[in-house]
Specification:
- By secondary structure, this protein is of the alpha/beta class.
- The chain has a single domain (3-204), classed as Vaccinia Virus protein VP39 (Rossmann fold, 3-Layer(aba) Sandwich).
- It has helices at 3-15, 34-43, 55-65, 100-110, 128-141, 149-158, 187-197; strands at residues 24-28, 47-52, 70-74, 85-91, 111-121, 162-167, 199-204.
- A 7-stranded mixed beta sheet has the order 3-2-1-4-5-7-6, sandwiched between helices.
- Strand 2, helix 3 (55-65) and strand 3 form a beta-alpha-beta unit.
């Protein structure tokens, strides 16, 4: 597990209103697969599938998966043939996506009716710490414009989802490991960020077609 993300992953599991046990789970932007390994070990998911554009990270994810029921692919979006997932997750992926509607459509099609996509979003226009970070890094990282929470909710709503949001049930925030480039680490700013600005959006595919 990537230890620096572990407390956020646990907060995600404490906040969601679904029991992952026995479910098929999709992880969008899975990186090295740590969250899916946690779900397999702690929750007993029946299958976990993750995709990420970084081939090196996917190589690590495959290696670290061991005998767990996990599979991984190098991809920018849901790979062809993947579908019928009960639940999907992402952690700080939405702010990286230029074609947000295409992402919403792909996740919608990958979920079973009644399935939910839980997306952690801390980089948005209502997050002062991340507004500054985005301004300083947008050009170098080729980021899209900074989305507002209302914009994200609107895009997913237009794609057919029922959208809601909650604050993460954050416990203790580690005093280190947030941003090694920060010249003046300030624990209070990070406590405020994780508790007030890092949100969990729930986008649910309706059980029945609208209309």
């Amino acid at each position: 597990m990537q230890d620096e993300h572990g407390f956020v992953w646990r907060a995600m599991l404490d906040t969601v209103d679904v029991d992952p046990a026995g479910k098929r789970v999709l992880d969008a932007g899975c990186n090295r697969g740590g969250f899916l390994r946690l779900l397999s070990d702690a929750c007993g998911i029946v299958e976990g599938c993750g995709f990420d554009p970084a081939s090196g990270a996917i190589d690590d994810a495959r290696r670290l998966a061991g005998p767990r029921p996990l599979r991984f692919e190098v991809a920018d979006s849901v790979p062809p043939g993947w579908g019928s997932f009960d639940v999907a997750f992402s952690h700080e992926v939405v702010y990286l996506i230029h074609e947000l509607r295409a992402h919403a459509d792909a996740i919608f099609e990958a979920l079973v009716p009644g399935g939910s996509y839980y997306a952690v979003i801390g980089v948005h226009t209502e997050s002062p710490l991340m507004v500054d970070w985005h301004r300083a890094n947008r050009e170098e990282l080729k980021l899209p414009k900074l989305y507002s929470i209302d914009e994200v909710a609107g895009v997913f709503g237009a794609a057919g989802f029922e959208v809601g949001a909650a604050r993460l049930k954050i416990g203790f925030v580690p005093a280190s490991g947030h941003d090694s480039t920060d010249p003046q680490p300030d624990l209070w700013r990070w406590i405020e960020y994780y508790n007030d600005h890092k949100l969990l959006m729930r986008c649910t595919r309706p059980s029945r077609p609208s209309g």
